[in-house]
Amino acid sequence: MKRRMIRAMLCGLLCWSVPLMTSCWDRVEVNDIAIIVGAGIDQMDGKQVKLSAEIYIPVESTGEGQESGMKAGNGNGKTFVSSAAGSSMAEAMYKLQERLSRKLYWGHNDIFVIGQARAEHGIEDDLDFILRYVRMRERANIYIAEGSAVDVLGIIPRLEPNSMEALSELSKTEISITVDLKEIIERIVETPDETYAIPYINRGKLLTDESHVRNPNVPYFRGMSLFKKGKMNGNLNSDLTWGYFWITNQIKGNTIISLKMPEEQTLAVLLTHSKTTLIPSITPDGKWKMKIKVRGEGNLLQNTSSLDFMNPAQHKAMIKKTNEEVEMSIRQTLKVLQKKYKTDVLDFGDRFRKHAPKQWQKEKKNWSTLFSEIETELDVEINIQRPGILNQNIKKMNRVNN
């Protein structure tokens, strides 16, 4: 009797589990999806928003050996761009889906490019949709394009599979930084004026030639765009951006510091590492101050000047010039951010919030005004450790030999 009950239970369990073993009923085949590798958002007339998607074109293997396979796998130009406009991002995406035979797949998209007109109009509604839609990636990087975003999509790069991959790789180098959706939302929540900075890239027509192939003579990045209360209110050019990097501790190794020297003389330092510390203080008479402490090391990269690295006094002169160059870069950026835009993208507010929470609670409503009046003190020390292979410049070596 007991054996019969066990057999009956096993048979019932087997019958119950059979439907669960009938393959993946909710599977999505690769052949059924349109893989998006980059997206662009532009402002249209009549308060409409235009959503553009750069979509990967699958390339079948030819089966004719390794050479043919390599050509198929290269991927240059193997994308196309489709666009649709609507009164909102949700409507624009719905209309974009209507134009494609495959279901839009956002899982591989980690780049959003926003046109300048849309950025100036405001991007908070767009961010709300992107972060609320479960298929979007919160770690997707954001860029602002001078002109329209759709012109940047579909650019055929020379080294990367597509233009979005090129932007992503460039952001890892010392010339730019990455800013993702999660970081922007954190800044919106934590800063009183919802201030943040996003990499600013050149307009698509400058980046390409007539055939839409990447023009290598024009840089992708042109600086940082500044946001306040959800709208773009200005930008920093490439020179001012270096000051922003210094202040926010985002200078990367292999950064080149080119010093201003007399005519036909060159002195350049290759930075190996650096660290910036912001030290806030409030004086007894109520003045808010910020000390910017920069420490770094580097090696001599080029020297055609009259300064001799092996001479202790002249070595100190090199270090002094390097420190002065960094200080000048920081001061120029501070002047623009504090006086012209009154936009704190430097985390000054967060430092004061942690340093003096009670005073911060009283003053944060007027932070734009207070930020513009903060006194800053610079303490910069960049040590030049090594001269490279040559101890002296070539001109001096020739004079000694002659």
Any overview of this molecule?
This protein has 402 residues and is an alpha/beta fold. 35% of the residues lie in helices and 27% in strands. The protein is built from 14 helices and 13 strands. Strands 1, 2, 3, 4, 5, 6, 7, 8 and 9 form a 9-stranded mixed sheet that branches. The protein has a 4-stranded mixed sheet with strand order 10-11-12-13. The longest helix has 30 residues. The protein starts with a helix and ends with a helix. About 4% of the residues have low confidence.
Q: Report the biggest beta sheet as strand number plus sense, adding barrel if it closes.
A: 9 strands, mixed
End-to-end gap: 113 Å
**Helical stretch tally:** 14
- β-sheet strand percentage: 25-35%
Structural class: alpha/beta
Order of helices and strands: HEEHEHEEHHEHHEHEEHEEEHHHHEH
Radius of gyration: 28 Å
Secondary structure: number of strands? 13
Give the SSE map.
Elements: H1 2-17, E1 33-43, E2 49-56, H2 66-74, E3 79-86, H3 89-98, E4 103-105, E5 111-115, H4 116-121, H5 124-132, E6 141-145, H6 163-170, H7 181-190, E7 196-201, H8 204-207, E8 221-228, E9 231-236, H9 238-247, E10 256-259, E11 267-282, E12 288-303, H10 312-341, H11 348-355, H12 357-363, H13 367-373, E13 375-386, H14 394-401
Parallel strand pairs: 1-4, 1-5, 5-6, 6-7, 12-13
Antiparallel strand pairs: 1-2, 2-3, 7-8, 8-9, 10-11, 11-12
Helix pairs in contact: 9-10, 11-12
